[in-house]
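request received
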Amino acid sequence: MILILILILILILILILILILILSKLFTKPCKSLINQNLGKSHWLRNYLPLQLLTNFQEMADIQHLKDLVSQVRRDIVRQVHAVNSGHPGGSLGCTEFIVALYNEIMDHDPSFQMDGKNQDLFFLSNGHISPVFYSVLAHAGYFPKEELNTFRKLNSRLQGHPTTHEGLPGVRIASGSLGQGMSVGIGAALTKKLNGDDKTVFTLHGDGELQEGQIWEAAMYASANHVDNLIATIDVNGQQIDGSTDTVLTLGDLRKKFEAFGWNVVTVSKGNDMESVIAGIKEAISLSRKRTPICILLHTVMGHGVDFMMGSHEWHGIAPNDEQLAEALKQNPETLGDY
Ligand SMILES: Cc1ncc(C[n+]2csc(CCOP(=O)(O)OP(=O)(O)O)c2C)c(N)n1
Ligand SMILES: [Mg+2]
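response:
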């Protein structure tokens, strides 16, 4: 009798737990935005336990969704590159958390896409060779149909190996691939926003090998001299480039000291493949913006992250996996949101 009672009690507890989970999925998002809209950052009600639990539940659900998206995007990357036996999986896999976080947690942007991006946060991919991750994130955000990822690097496709504006792919505002140019473009866009009284932020992404381009340092000098404080430039510090490690090809020295010497504020994200750390790092960078100084995020990532045999080596900078390697890569990154 007591055993049956205990079993019933456990059953009821499990049911209550399931109910709480369902309710939290349904109601916490609207609650969270209501709280954010109506309560100041330091309002005493924020410390009220049920409210805290509610927002914590939502944050956990959001992070899980972002991690699912990361797994799906990694699948898209290796599948795009494998299908045409060309492209750049290494840097794409390493920057997945960052670009997923930007488009799904950080930026205020509109997938219906206007080229001038007025009153929206903007992102410019300067290391254009990592287009597979960029295209996948844009497609999942609703800029164009996911099925179009099937056309990656094909003749007449809008998804060229390196992004171009000529083909009119929504989400792409500059042609990139010729390394070194994206920071200059970002500065121009950031200054334009200031002139227009547009208070949104401009984000750029660069490879660490890309920093060997002189134009980067001309732009860096210009940005601080002109107080371009609505620009956040992120460097993918994976220590690798096309022909080997950055240390063996042309060592970069102390990047923090270099950017600081050029008058920038620097945020270091030492775990650039950990979603929570990436989000925290970008938010810290945003909190440093609008203080008359441009901001740089040194994002330490692992080239090829998420596919064990691709990780940490320049070998996977720009080659495609064969059939067996693709199968292995897909096994390590489960299908979470549906393959294209
Ligand atoms: C101006 C210019 N010079 C050379 C190249 C050839 N190139 C393509 S990717 C690459 C390596 C860049 O290294 P990094 O920025 O660290 O990218 P990762 O290998 O980490 O993806 C080079 C030299 C280029 N695309 N543009
Ligand atoms: Mg690199």
